[in-house]
Amino acid sequence: MKLDVDVLRYLTKEDFRVLTAVEMGMRNHEIVPAELVERIAALKHGGTYKVMKNLLKHKLLHHDASKYDGFRLTYLGYDFLAIKTLVNRGVFSAVGRQLGVGKESDIFEVATEDGTVMAMKLHRLGRTSFRAVKSKRDYLKHRSSFNWLYLSRLAALREFSFMKALQEHGFPVPNAVDCNRHCVIMSLVPGYPLVQVKQLENPEIVFNTIIGLVVRLTEHGLIHCDFNEFNIMIDDDEKITMIDFPQMVSVSHRNAQMYFDRDVECVFKFFSKRFNMSFHECTADIDGTAVDTDDSGRPSFTSIAKDTGFLDKELSASGFTRKDQEEIAKFIEGGIKKDASSDDEDTEDDEHISMLNEANTMGVDSLHVADQHDEQVESEGNVRTCEAGPSSEPENEDGSNEEGDNETVTNDNDAELEKRLNKVRRRAVTAARGGRKTFASRNTYKDKGGKSSNSSKIQRQLSSW
Ligand code: ADP
Ligand code: MG
Question: What's the whole-model pTM score?
Answer without folding.
Answer: 0.71
